[in-house]
Amino acid sequence: MQYRADIDGLRTIAVLAVVLFHLDVPGFSGGFVGVDVFFVISGYLITSIIAGKIAGGGFSLGEFYARRVQRLFPPLIVTVAATFLAASLIVEPFDLIAIGRSAVAALFSVSNMVFFSEAGYWDTASHLKPLLHTWSLGIEEQFYLIWPALLLWYLGKPRRGGLGALVAVIFLVGLAACIWWSLRDPSAAFYLLPFRAFEFAMGAAVICIARWPAFVRLAERRGVADALTLAGLALIAGSVYGFDASTLFPGWAVLLPTSGSVLVLLGGAVRAGPVAGLLLGNRASLWIGKVSYSMYLVHWPPIALYRYHSGAEALHWPVQLALGLATLLATLALHYGVERRFYQRHLGDATSNGGRTSLRRPTLAILCTSALLALLPASAWLGDGWSWRQPDNQLSVAQVEQGMKDRFKRIRKACTVTKWDSPKRCALDKPIQVLTFGNSHEPDAYNFLYASYGKADDINLMTFGSTNNCPNLQGGDGVYTSTNERCARRFKALFQDGLPESLDVIVYATERPFIPVRQIHLDVIRDLLARNPGIQVVTVSGYIVSNQPCWRLVNRSGSAAACAAEENVAYFGDQPSRWRLYEPFMALTDLFIDRVELLCPQRKLENCATQAPDATPMFYDEHHLSVEFSEYAGALYEQRHPDFLRKLVTGGSGSAVEGARKTNHTNAP
């Protein structure tokens, strides 16, 4: 196919958007859409090449795959190897396990699937994963594997219809699936090919549209090509500037940058206008476009590893400048030292035997190198993260993994709202029924109570099951819905006839209980109180949130005290009343358990307890308390306020009540 300078210019926009987004440059909060621009470009170019060769009878699947391997894998192999080796010098063994897994996945073109499997609330922060950006390459490589065979099967049979019919079906079905799944499971819609395939189809659609005689006549008119180009660039720029982390993506929003890409491609499909030449065809744009693949590969690992090593939350301009310069130098080295040496646009006629041989040998060599190299990160992934590198670590990989699992050992056997009517799980004959409710900190509250009441003959501890896995949670008046079916089932069970009326106590627990996003929790508690005004409400305060995992800080410093050092703390719950929902929650609260008052003498951060008596850290991640620390805090609270839970229900001494409801539940604001 004929070379189009405007496509290299469009690549430049795409890669710069991604790089500047990852560098935290203001105005590029939506720069992640650069990946979607790349998807549309790939759909257009690959479909053009394949459809043209199929029409001419000269298409070979083997040749196509060989060319893709030689184009994509050598720079990828070098990037993965360099990133893994650099990471092995910096990161802790526990983290090297995940990096090793992602390195193997990248070399086998399935990193998008691995990152999808890891996605969720408990996932490591994305900005600390040095190979996270390879998810998009996984999608592209899977597209390259499937699309040629599909086109060969479909276009090889004239009776099946033209390319437009196939593209239209993939676009419509794929877009509908993407929008629907973005609401149900945003991670799947983001990472998996079936929900991204329509973007490649949009690129392929450019080929179909550009063949329409009506479009050709229109595009030949003066100014039309420039108008299409400018409109397309405006849509992309608007997405880059206007989108941010709060944008539901992909969803409907993805149509803005992808439609913009289609318009730019259409602008140059018949005859590029002077605007395209000026904005997209200048020397700088053409050069960056040609090295865009290498730039995309090398830009992210230094940023992620810098963040990991420094613990920096934000990148200030000197760091941005230094990382930008490092990206440029690494791009030059990778493009001219690797990419251009292994791939040439014109390799000769591969339909001859000599042509096939010229493709086959280097392709096999590249694939074998990739497979052999994967053994290195695999040894870290399937082992213990090469813990021999740091033999003096206070917390081993096994200890961290076990500590995180143990947090749930009590709650796994607990009575739940969905098993409320099961005598095997729930002791409904006990006179006091207690429900823990909140987000992922429900286990902390459960473990806190279990220390003193877990085996009590008169108290049944019940758990809701967290609202963290409840996307699109909304509702009121006892009817709550979520696109997660399990969550919806829990809420239905919570308000089933008999359950609210049987409750004596609700214990509400989150890490920051009074921030505005907790309004939905407040609404649920109000609705339960409307059903049963006699329920006593216990609110558990926040405690400490660190800006990186506590286990990592322990291993670096040798002490859990580092997890409460001011420079490592992102949140400290010493002033709960400063949050907007404090008063509304306290109007419903009968007992406020202030963990800062309990564990931090004089309410000072430096005085806070950071480990249990057996030296177990207060948490392993950034804020979810270990079972040992939760039970230690619960036992300490019981020691200071004996029988606080029973007294709350029976109206005994109020010495333990640190906050009191001022009005009847039904009249609370």
What does this protein look like?
With 669 residues, this protein is mainly alpha-helical. It has two domains: 5-384, no CATH class; 405-660, Rossmann fold. The chain is built from 28 helices and ten strands. The strands form three sheets. It has a six-stranded parallel sheet, with helices on both faces. Strands 4-5 form a two-stranded antiparallel ribbon. β4 (474-476) and β5 (479-481) form a beta hairpin. The chain is elongated, with a radius of gyration of 29 Å. 48% of the residues are buried.
Topology:
Blueprint: H1 5-22, H2 34-56, H3 61-90, H4 93-107, H5 111-118, H6 134-155, H7 163-184, H8 186-191, H9 197-211, H10 213-219, H11 224-242, H12 255-267, H13 274-279, H14 283-290, H15 292-310, H16 317-342, H17 353-373, H18 375-382, H19 397-406, E1 415-416, E2 432-438, H20 442-453, E3 459-463, E4 474-476, E5 479-481, H21 485-494, H22 499-502, E6 505-509, H23 519-531, E7 536-540, E8 544-546, H24 550-557, E9 569-572, H25 582-588, E10 591-593, H26 595-599, H27 627-640, H28 644-650
Parallel strand pairs: 1-3, 2-3, 2-6, 6-7, 7-10
Antiparallel strand pairs: 4-5, 8-9
